[in-house]
Design brief:
37 helices
Length: about 1050
């Protein structure tokens, strides 16, 4: 709606003003010249002018319609209808503009990526057309053909014997348990809950799989069943005598509930975002403990790391990405429902503004989580082709055309210049069919029981449904969906109510979740249910429509059987259905289907051929399809038979076979230092430390003899000569041996803070670790804050019970300046996390050996998908495009800072932070070109660090836990009121946080204002692990006592 119209409506007496406005528009034009007006509107470049012309046309068209119908009065209802049509027209225009902008950005990024990859693709490389499925993923019947014979499955089973895989599944929201699932209880407890539980069971039943853990949230709330508060629940798996020899003490499938978020509340998924890091830390604890336990049972004493971590939905995808980075293991992703697609649908509806949508659904945080998941995932598992072609391609991180080009280069063994794209794999969900017996009888052919052959009693749910019907023997049209607008239940009721032949031939059953009272339902669900009840009353459908209030999960098969017994039809009329698991369930019970033509049902229908597809917006089409199946006995029988014949294509064993085959294609990854640890068979564990520590030093730690850019050797050609390398090696070996001798002999207090002085790095022997992660603009301010923190805990610092880590965006050369200017010694800190988390240094016990030691295993841990030179080129090109157009001379705003960069951090300095695009735009630039990196705006926007996608300061703390066993719960992180754009990761988690009041508060407006989502969406507001304190030593001490670090 344009400003003119809005002004008229907002003024007092708005209707009268609107009439005047309309009459002026209508009378000022020739009504016979609409086509010319349309051409002019289309040719107009200015969006504002185009919208004005289209608005005027709407009024003129309406006036013609009014004249033809001889409408004599101007009614308010007419006005509202016109306004709604105009708004829809303008929303479509805005959507078209957004799509055009996205298309241009993607095409430009694609051109730049191809240019960077230097050589054009040959005709042979071009391969498939854009619309070909193989460009997007693996089809149901392509590279991994369905197994249709027992012999073929036996061959595959034999190949898996001897493997003992450990698999992690993550599904955070909703209420998850193994039996009597409360599906439909709320919008979070739906088909995804059932899918992940059955997937865990099915995988654990496969040969070669030893253990499957399904990680979810522990809910100890009086509002839900006590079982959701149990830490562990074992899932019963399908019995198989063939694999009994693979069973063990900890084998099988388990639901593992990790406590995070409010202790006594069950909260919706939109409110879980501030607590994701707490889940990640808790899950990391569990996985490490279980990996060690499995190692003792089946790994010969070596930890058995997960072969993959699989996230389901955006929140679990975000968690899986962080866990994948912390453990350096492959990640898989299943989106289930995607945020960008939902945002587009909500914007089309026009009921909520973008800000209102984000406030309600936290949609921008969800989209960023999905983008990060694409950055990290090895494989994205989808159910259908539609999910790839119409949903995933909306994301910056996935371009099917560029993905095809990259695959062509990989096949030819040609460099992709640091570009990566996740592989899309179409694997439809599975089902267990062995317990299903299709219903062959009918309501008319029932045989009464006698004493010798009594009939089994009807399930109670049958009675609950049939009590609604005047004639319960008519075929039943069954819909099973929660009361959600996108499920389109109201259109189904309208179609049924307005088709008299259909009403005479059939009944309608609506299974819409569980409810106690309408007032207790969510506003959206209540609105849908009330609309259904009003339609039932409008069309007088009493005695023809059933809508029971309650059903159990175990009742669902009986509901399908009842519909099949009446020779009924199953319908899914959703506007868009990502997959449609209920369609497979219905087919397994012998029910033909009528389903939406948008989404997964198209693929299901192609395989099963057991029904009809309809346009969900076309009410008449829905009614005609239902009537055709209900009235046509031959067609009904044919569809039923086709469904039963082809249903094996969707069995769980086949799903799991395809799933495990995809995992087998991933390059194995796990914590790299395990190799050196495994090679060391020494059982030494003396106070002077074991030989294992010495081996660790010689294998993955290099003494920084000059303290300058120890991590940047890859960019320093002067260190490439053999002579220099040999000299360095000799010095390092000498330093290591000198240090090792010093450990055994030196008992000076400066090194030996307690009886276990030999532990290296020294943070291994601390009771608590304090992490100084305050993001100041200047080194002087950071030094002042550090002295204040030291003063607050001086007693514990001296006796060695507390160690310190400096976590900063500064380079190691700047840390040397910080230490010198602040009067600190390197040994005042146990470790230095620098370059925003891309480099990790330790202080050395003996100053003569050099001030710092760099952990090279940390680099191997974070280098996954690091773009290297290809990424650097793109960043330099981007930085050169940022200029001050208003300045007299063209001035570059962003400049490369080679002296501050390292192998895994490209640093840039910023002269005018206010002129630099927000960090979300830089991330988009990288993702569109298939470059995976973590862009961080630092030091109040005056520096930009781009580091590996899974590197960050918070991830470095998790590495210290995984690598050295430093408990996260024993860490205290000091931060300001705001900070760099990786600030959010430092607040959540198992560690404790102290926010220094008034420190870095200006950074909020400078750096975080233009993020994709507000910082408040992801900040834990009521966490007992987060306190605030003024920047005074006594107040800091009191805050630490409040956190339980010290006794008051």
């Amino acid at each position: 709606m344009t400003k003119n119209l809005l002004f008229c409506l907002e003024k007092e007496g708005g209707l009268a003003q609107l009439v005047i406005f309309v009459e002026e528009v209508v009378s000022g034009f020739d009504e016979t010249d609409l086509y010319r007006s349309w051409v002019r509107a289309q040719a107009t470049r200015s969006p504002q002018e185009r919208n004005t012309r289209l608005e005027n046309m709407c009024w003129r068209i309406w006036n013609l319609a009014r004249q033809k119908k001889q409408v004599l009065h101007f009614h308010l209802e007419d006005t509202q209808d016109i306004v709604e049509k105009m708004m829809n027209l303008m929303l479509e225009g805005e959507l078209a503009q957004r799509n055009a902008k996205r298309r241009l950005e993607r095409e430009r990024g694609r051109r730049e990526a191809v240019a960077d990859m230097s050589e054009d693709l040959s005709e042979g490389e071009k391969g498939d057309t854009v619309g070909d499925l193989s460009a997007h993923g693996d089809s149901v019947r392509s590279r991994l053909p369905r197994i249709n014979s027992v012999d073929a499955m036996d061959v595959w089973v034999n190949q898996q014997k001897g493997k003992k895989l450990y698999i992690i599944l993550i599904s955070l929201h909703g209420l998850i348990r193994g039996d009597n699932m409360e599906l439909g209880r709320d919008s979070d407890t739906g088909g995804q809950v059932k899918y992940v539980v059955e997937l865990a069971r099915a995988l654990a039943s496969m040969p070669g799989v030893y253990r499957v853990d399904l990680l979810t949230r522990q809910v100890s709330s009086p509002d839900v069943d006590w079982g959701y508060g149990e830490p562990t629940e074992m899932l019963t798996t399908r019995n198989s005598e063939d694999f009994l020899d693979e069973m063990g003490e900890s084998s099988g499938a388990y639901i593992v509930r990790i406590p995070f978020g409010p202790k006594d509340k069950y909260i919706p998924k939109e409110l879980l975002w501030p607590h994701i890091h707490e889940f990640v830390d808790g899950a990391l604890n569990h996985i490490i403990r279980m990996s060690k336990s499995l190692g003792e049972q089946i790994g010969g004493g070596k930890p058995v790391w997960p072969v993959a971590i699989h996230g389901h939905y955006a929140d679990a995808g975000d968690s899986a990405a962080l866990l994948s980075g912390a453990l350096n293991v492959p990640m898989l992703l299943t989106g289930h429902s995607l945020g960008r697609d939902k945002l587009e649908q909500l914007l089309k509806q026009g009921r909520l503004s973008r800000d209102e949508i984000n406030s309600t659904y936290k949609i921008m945080r969800r989209i960023e989580a999905e983008e990060l998941s694409l950055d990290v995932s090895e494989i994205v598992i989808t159910s259908t082709r539609q999910e790839i072609e119409e949903q995933w391609r909306l994301y910056d991180g996935f371009d099917p055309i560029l993905e095809r080009k990259l695959r062509a280069r990989i096949r030819r063994n040609v460099s992709c210049y640091g570009r990566f794209m996740p592989r899309m794999a179409i694997i439809p969900p599975g089902m267990e069919f062995h317990h299903i017996v299709p219903q062959d009888g009918d309501m008319d052919g029932e045989i009464e029981g006698n004493e010798d052959h009594p009939t089994s009693p009807d399930p109670s749910i049958w009675t609950e449904i049939m009590r609604f019907f005047t004639n319960s023997r008519k075929p039943m049209i069954l819909a099973l969906a929660r009361p959600d607008p996108k499920k389109n239940i109201t259109t189904l009721v309208k179609a049924f109510g307005e088709c008299r032949p259909l009403r005479e031939l059939a009944n309608l059953t609506l299974i819409m979740g569980n409810r106690d009272g309408i007032d207790e339902m969510s506003s959206t669900s209540a609105s849908v249910l009330l609309s259904v009840l009003k339609l039932i009353d409008k069309y007088d459908l009493y005695g023809q429509v059933a809508y029971p209030k309650h059903h159990k999960q175990c009742d669902v098969p009986d509901i399908y059987r009842l519909a099949a017994k009446t020779k009924g039809v199953f319908i899914n009329p959703a506007f868009i259905e990502p997959f449609g698991l209920t369609l497979i369930e219905a087919a397994a019970h012998g029910l033909p289907m009528v389903a939406t033509k948008n989404g997964g049902p198209v693929d299901i229908h192609r395989v099963l051929d057991n029904g009809l597809l309809v346009d969900p917006h076309d009410q008449q089409s829905i009614a005609d399809a239902l009537l055709k199946l209900v009235s046509g006995k031959q067609l009904w029988a044919k569809c039923r038979q086709n469904g039963l014949k082809n249903i094996h294509h969707f069995s769980w064993p086949e799903h799991c076979r395809a799933y495990l085959s995809k995992i087998a294609g991933c390059k194995p990854r796990h914590p790299q230092w395990q190799k050196s640890d495994d090679a060391d068979n020494s059982d030494t564990d003396s106070p002077g430390d074991s030989l294992r520590d010495i081996q660790d030093l010689s294998l993955n730690l290099r003494f920084s003899l000059d303290g300058e850019r120890a991590g940047g050797s890859g960019n320093d050609s002067s260190q490439g000569s053999e002579g220099n390398a040999a000299d360095k090696k000799s010095k390092i070996e000498t330093a290591v041996m000198a240090w090792s001798r010093g450990v055994g002999k030196d008992t000076r207090k400066a090194v030996d803070h307690n009886s276990s002085s030999g532990k290296f790095p020294s943070l291994r022997r601390r009771k608590q670790i304090f992490v100084i992660a305050v993001d100041f603009d200047t080194i002087a301010s950071l030094a002042e804050a550090t002295r204040t923190i030291f003063e607050a805990v001086e007693k514990e610092r001296v006796d060695g019970s507390i160690g310190f880590i400096l976590s900063t965006s500064l380079a190691i050369s700047e840390i040397r300046s910080f230490l010198a200017s602040g009067g600190f010694s390197p040994n005042d800190f146990d470790a230095f996390i620098c370059n925003s988390g891309s480099d990790l240094y330790y202080s050395t016990p003996n100053p003569e050996d050099g001030p710092f030691v760099i952990d090279f295993y940390y680099h191997s841990h974070i280098e996954y998908r690091w773009g290297g030179e290809g990424l650097r080129k793109t960043l330099v090109r981007w930085s050169s495009s940022i200029i001050d157009k208003k300045a007299e001379d063209v001035e570059r705003i962003v400049s490369s800072a080679e002296q501050l960069s390292s192998d895994y951090c490209y640093a840039f300095t910023v002269k005018k932070p206010g002129l630099v695009p927000p960090v979300k735009e830089l991330r988009k630039v990288l993702r569109i070109q298939a470059l995976r990196g973590h862009a961080i705006y630092c030091q109040n926007g005056t520096r930009i660090n781009v580091i590996p996608v899974l590197a960050s300061r918070s991830q470095a703390l998790r590495y210290l836990y995984v690598r050295w066993g430093v408990e996260l719960a024993n860490m205290v992180v000091f931060v300001g009121e705001c900070g760099d754009t990786d600030y959010e990761g430092l607040l959540g988690g198992l560690h404790k946080s102290v926010i220094l009041k008034g420190v870095c508060s200006s950074a909020c407006s400078q750096v975080h204002a233009n993020q994709s989502y507000p910082l408040s969406d992801i900040m834990p507001s009521e966490s007992p692990n987060v306190v605030q304190a003024p920047e005074e030593s006594s107040e800091i001490r009191s805050s630490l006592e409040q956190l339980g670090c010290f006794k008051s």
